[in-house]
């Protein structure tokens, strides 16, 4: 532990910015009802805050490895942070939901550039070897995912604009820290061999990677129904939603770091995936059945976070082991497809709820999780390679980081 804490200032600067970047995933969750009320927007329009953010993030993920291999890590980090600060501030100053949706899309672009580069930067600059760097990055990642909804609830209790202003200020501090403390020529910040822009697209033609990308597409639909749609049937104020999804985030962070490695040390990854996807589908079915019970729905959300943490880690570890492609290329291809699934789900959920009832989005999400289950089950022969041990701690961290980022 002492080795982990004795890090250069540059590492702490990137880790701090990483916490804030990952907070952005769930930050708007508690303020969705407030935005709908104050800006006279429908639930479907407010869900576009997730859709625009995730769609742009997904598309950008296909190109981040190409860009960072040419700009270098530090410049890519700075560019991403500038975009996040600018678009978060613009969103806070907006007076209609259409503008907020557009600025969230710009935020998604900045986040894609930042999160795709932060791990390599920390590993390249950290003291104590890659193990200490990995633990530090995972801690930043888990903290951001857990604290995002809580901060959104705290600031959203004052005004829906609060979380956007807060993010802009915190990321501006992170930008200044990286500019002043991170050396351009340190470790991972040096330029690497340029990666062709076509590499992630060609990667999807590999049978195992393509199969896992399909599984991730449907899994992420289920993920974001639970995360992005649930604030509406819960009907809680911003602080109540913040606390609920804080519990969700804590559970996700803990199982991704501790339970997932425990399970994969004892079971094949494909087996863990099937069990977890079946549990997720069951949890979503129960959520649909207890839709009128706030305590019951909260319990489903928090338990769902525990399952999602395992799935995030194991599914993306499987991607890392599915081919002999460079990890950055495989991650870009997989993450791009996965974020597209997340972009579809929130808006589709509110449309389904309006047309067929509040429970239906959960049942459809359960169906998506079962499709992902069937893809893994039917494709087990193609996926035999993913059950091999992770080759190094750094590759395991890359897998965890890519999964958690979504």
UniProtKB/TrEMBL annotation:
<dbReference type="InterPro" id="IPR001958">
    <property type="entry name" value="Tet-R_TetA/multi-R_MdtG-like"/>
</dbReference>
<keyword id="KW-1133">Transmembrane helix</keyword>
<feature type="domain" description="Major facilitator superfamily (MFS) profile">
    <location>
        <begin position="10"/>
        <end position="384"/>
    </location>
</feature>
<dbReference type="InterPro" id="IPR011701">
    <property type="entry name" value="MFS"/>
</dbReference>
<feature type="transmembrane region" description="Helical">
    <location>
        <begin position="272"/>
        <end position="290"/>
    </location>
</feature>
<feature type="transmembrane region" description="Helical">
    <location>
        <begin position="164"/>
        <end position="182"/>
    </location>
</feature>
<feature type="transmembrane region" description="Helical">
    <location>
        <begin position="241"/>
        <end position="260"/>
    </location>
</feature>
<feature type="transmembrane region" description="Helical">
    <location>
        <begin position="12"/>
        <end position="36"/>
    </location>
</feature>
<feature type="transmembrane region" description="Helical">
    <location>
        <begin position="336"/>
        <end position="356"/>
    </location>
</feature>
<feature type="transmembrane region" description="Helical">
    <location>
        <begin position="48"/>
        <end position="69"/>
    </location>
</feature>
<protein>
    <submittedName>
        <fullName>MFS transporter</fullName>
    </submittedName>
</protein>
<dbReference type="InterPro" id="IPR053200">
    <property type="entry name" value="YfmO-like"/>
</dbReference>
<feature type="transmembrane region" description="Helical">
    <location>
        <begin position="76"/>
        <end position="93"/>
    </location>
</feature>
<feature type="transmembrane region" description="Helical">
    <location>
        <begin position="134"/>
        <end position="158"/>
    </location>
</feature>
<feature type="transmembrane region" description="Helical">
    <location>
        <begin position="203"/>
        <end position="229"/>
    </location>
</feature>
<feature type="transmembrane region" description="Helical">
    <location>
        <begin position="296"/>
        <end position="315"/>
    </location>
</feature>
<keyword id="KW-0812">Transmembrane</keyword>
<feature type="transmembrane region" description="Helical">
    <location>
        <begin position="105"/>
        <end position="127"/>
    </location>
</feature>
<feature type="transmembrane region" description="Helical">
    <location>
        <begin position="362"/>
        <end position="383"/>
    </location>
</feature>
<dbReference type="InterPro" id="IPR020846">
    <property type="entry name" value="MFS_dom"/>
</dbReference>
<dbReference type="InterPro" id="IPR036259">
    <property type="entry name" value="MFS_trans_sf"/>
</dbReference>
<keyword id="KW-0472">Membrane</keyword>
<dbReference type="Pfam" id="PF07690">
    <property type="entry name" value="MFS_1"/>
</dbReference>
